[in-house]
Amino acid sequence: MTSSKKHHPQLNKEGELHHLLSIDGLPRSVIERILTTADSFINVAEREVKSVPLLRGKSVFNLFFENSTRTRTTFEIAARRLSADVFNLDIVRSSAAKGESLLDTINNLTAMQADIFVVRHATSGAPYLIARHTSAHAPHIHVINAGDGQHAHPTQGLLDAYTIRHYKKDFSNLIVAVVGDILHSRVARSDIHALTILGVPEVRAVGPLTLLPAGLEQMGVRVCTRLDEGIRGADVIIMLRLQSERMRGALLPSAAEYFANYGLTADKLALAKPDAIVMHPGPMNRGVEIDSHVADGAASVILPQVTFGIAVRMAVLAIASSSARVQ
Amino acid sequence: MKIAIINGHVIDPASGFDKVAGVYIEGGQIAAIGRAPEHFKAERTVDAKGLIVAPGLVDLCARLREPGHEGALKTEMKAALAGGVTSVVCPPDTDPPLDEPGLVRMLRQRSRESAGARTYPLGALTAGLKGEALAALKTLAEVGCVAFMQTRSLPHDNSVLLQAMRYAKTFELPIWLRPVEDTLAGSGVAGAGAVAGRLGLPAVPVVAETVALHTIFELQRATGARIHICRLSSREGIELVRQAKREGLPVTADVGIHHVHLIDVDIGYFDPNFRLDPPLRGLRDRDAIVEGLADGTIDIICSDHAPIGEDYKLLPFGEAEPGATALETLLPLTLKWASENKVPLREALAKITSGPAEILGKGSAKGRLTVGAKADLAIFNSSEPWVVGGATLISAGKNTPFSGYEMQGRVHYTLVGGEVRFEST
Buried b / exposed e across B116-134, counting CB within 10 Å, b at 16+? Predict the structure, then answer.
């Protein structure tokens, strides 16, 4: 079955970014524009007045149906540096608990003159439902996915791409290893899409078979089940956070066994290129997926990732809100 | 009432009768085909020129939401008739489940009062469908349950299934099962594969189906119970059914109409109308379903009708209630499958009329259009287009993956027991 209703829901008819829901399917030009725009925002933070008036008078609602202080804070800082009015809604504890439906919540906030929704939700695809709804009923609203279930975390994928470009300049000759719980990771999916679209010739997904989803090869990655094989000769190593609940079922026996086989230590890092960089989306589990010596070592760019994340989120908010209103 | 249906293209899939002829109805039965009986004076004459006159559709799975939703049954019965469906089998996943004679009696009575399609309730195999204690199968059979079903998945405890088969075999009662092993299916919402992986949707692996089928067949070998397998979804599962039939196990199998057409890729961007149970799988699985229908491994097609209110569908994909409304699209989607795969109309109709009637067995709707049979008929134009949508569907459920699509095949008249119960306007 093919249908016109399957057109990419995040671009408007002019091909501009209206919502940011996933990196999957974004044109390379849109991603490159975000990265270039982020460059121009890097310096804003170093000025005495840390803001530009691009979103003055706009209301950004952070709708967090799932807790995440870190991501919410970086979105909040990004929106404030663009001079937007920011409202944080911790919906885990309010309307959802009262049984209000997701779209009822959206309708209420739309009535409060929202311009941008930044959405974090525990169920894959929830931001698509919201975007479909606002596109039909309030087409001026932009939806930015701040992480949905196991599906996507597009701004993380973009900030990872930005970080890699910052240190490696060029994507076209890189080997990037994404290590850990690929199955449950929205970060891994967004990283894989961003890097393959940007032309990285070899993206590796590294983990035990219990943590690798079906169909990875179709996403253009090389699957490696052993860490040695996965990071040998790599230019970039992205370590994923291992949620503690993964250890309770049959996916993994223990944190210790995981660390022994997939934890990034100095010894393992020596298998990568001498100038390899180590990344992590945070928050880190030291001694589970990464050794402290590596996390705090010379190869680590984990803190710069956080700084770049603000500039990238500023770029996404600025570009989406400047897209023509065409529906 | 004496009714003459003239000039129609009469098809009786079971006998192969396939030509323009008159059908003459008297006393609720088909009195003659071809020439009117002597002294037959029609009180009503239906001109079926350009239309197909076929047995009414027999749908092996349609949820009428009775018990559970006050007044729902009437609307869904109208939808059935508008879809040319004259017999519906109601699965026991009602609220409460059909595990007591009183509930079954009430469903049958409400059905009779609705003057809709004939109703054939499936009793719950286990009390409350919990998979723990057997329901009163014999008593339920005596009040009209045609078979006994465990919905969703096999009982978690294999010994319950073993005893259920032994007990059912004692009274020669058929058991209907969904081939789903619950621990392997987990909380999956999409068929395992590249699409589920990309969308980050919890997946139901193929082994959830194949392990269940191995369990069913092994217990069948031990007990001799007659089993109907409901809603096959995978290539590997279909192959196991093929082997079981070759071996001679007393087994039949069906597939839902949506799985004949759709695959996981069609989920697109998390469209909840494509959240079905079983979840959609890949192209190779869909092709295997088409092959299974062609070689008879899959005996019949059902609608798997599930009318779902907007509040339960307008949710993120994984939270949306699974299922699609389908009583009114079963016929056009069957015709679409036939025309896409060059299946003769007569054979296609067998999958939704005489085939399912045969699985229901003696004493039930025959799915036949022959002299002496009950006059349950669907009279339709096989190429007339109509657009599926909220405005055209009668069912309370507007939840269909085909919303907005043009279908071919429109029912003009539906007769149940010689009564015209639906007439298009």
Answer: bbbbbbbbbbbeebebeeb
Beta strands in A12-104 (DSSP E): 59-64, 85-90
Residue B366 pLDDT exceeds 50: yes
- pTM reported for the whole predicted model: 0.94
User: Chain A contacts of B261, Cβ < 8 Å?
Assistant: 1
CA nearest to A189 within chain B: B198
Per-residue pLDDT band for B357 (boundaries 50, 70, 90) equals very high
Neighbouring CB atoms inside 10 A of B96's CB total 13
Distance (Å) from the alpha carbon of B62 to chain A's nearest alpha carbon: 24
B266 interfaces chain A, CB cutoff of 8 Å: yes
pLDDT, tens digit, for every residue of A53-84? 999 999 999 999 988 889 999 999 999 999 99
How far is B198 from chain A, CA to nearest CA, in Å? 7
Q: CA A157, CA A179: separation in Å to the nearest integer?
A: 15
Q: Chain B residues with CB inside 8 Å of A205's CB?
A: none
* Measured distance CA(B9)–CA(A256) in Å, rounded: 74
Average pLDDT over residues B311-316: 93
For residue range A163-207, list pLDDT tens digits in order: 999 999 999 999 999 999 999 999 999 999 999 999 999 999 999
Q: How many Cβ contacts (< 8 angstroms) between chains A and B?
A: 88
Q: How confident is the model at residue A243, as a pLDDT?
A: 84
Question: Residues of A with CB below 8 A from B201's CB?
Answer: 124-125, 149-151
Helices (H) then strands (E): counts for chain B: 14, 18
Q: Is residue A93 a contact partner of residue A77, using CB atoms and an 8 Å limit? A: no
Res. B362: pLDDT tops 70: no
Residue-wise pLDDT for B77-136, tens only, equals 999 999 999 999 999 999 999 999 999 999 999 999 999 999 999 999 999 999 999 999
**Is there a contact between B192 and A216 if contact means CB atoms under 8 Å apart?**
no
Residue B219 has pLDDT above 60, yes or no: yes
Measured torsion, CA atoms of residues A104, A109, A113, A119, in degrees rounded to the nearest 10:
-110
Which residues of B are catalytically annotated? 304
A283 prior amide bond cis, ω within 30: yes
Q: Does B404 contact A at CB distance below 8 Å?
A: yes
- Two tokens at B126? 């286990």
Which of A18, A104, A121, A123 to mutate to test binding with chain B, by most B CBs within 10 Å of its CB? A123
| pLDDT value at A324 more than 70 | no
> Under an 8 A CB cutoff, do A125 and B195 touch?
no
Q: Token digits for A184?
A: 């449950």
Q: What is the pLDDT of residue A100?
A: 76
Q: In b/e form, how buried is each residue of A241-279, taking b as 16+ CB within 10 angstroms?
A: bbeeebbeeebbeebeebbeebbbeeebbebbbeebbbb
Please report the DSSP string for B300-311 in residue order.
Answer: EEE--B----HH
Q: How near does any CA of chain B get to the CA of A98, in Å?
A: 16
Inter-chain touch A215–B315, beta carbons under 8 Å: no
